Amino acid sequence: MGRAEQREQTRRALLRESRRLFAAEGYGAVGLTQIVDAAGVTKGALYHHFDGKTALFRAVLAQVQEEVGRHVAATADAEPDPWDRLVAGCHAFLTASTGPDVRRIMLIDGPAVLGWREWRALDEAASARHLADALTLLMETGVIPERPVAPLTHLLSGAMNEAALWLADSADPGDLAETEAALTRMLESLRS
Fold first, then answer.
1. DSSP of 130-187
2. 118-131 pLDDT, tens per residue?
3. For the HTH tetR-type domain, which residue ranges apply (predicted)?
């Protein structure tokens, strides 16, 4: 194995193990020693790839947000109708965000560790832009009335983030279907 391949393998192990630990225990409860022991590397190897625990968490969060964004986009893109794409994408976000690792890393620790502005910038790069693009297309095609896209995107994103947090703590398996139905009704109110 070459040095570049070995470095990439070390980086992947650090991301994999830190993600597992951050999801299970939360950012505050996980130490660097625990991460490097789990990954089977030295602290020097960790510092070769990341400036510290926060930088490692940032990389894990970006990975989680990218995965959620790809899942939402793939689900939405499977729908031929722009309206159905919006609804399917929003439902996919709710489902993906209720996974315990996604919930803990993306919705709870992300804003707390990185601060709201940085967390929001990562969210925009990963999935919020899909929502804004979908809303823009629906306005351009006359499905929903023209209005400023940014406030609407933030309102819908905030509502879905809050719903995902609530769903992740819910013990009632019917809550997801009820939340999706409520979200669909809320989205329907946007139509012309």
1. HHHHHHHHHHHTTSS----HHHHHHHHHHHHHHHHHHHHH---TTHHHHHHHHHHHHH
2. 988 888 877 778 89
3. 8-68
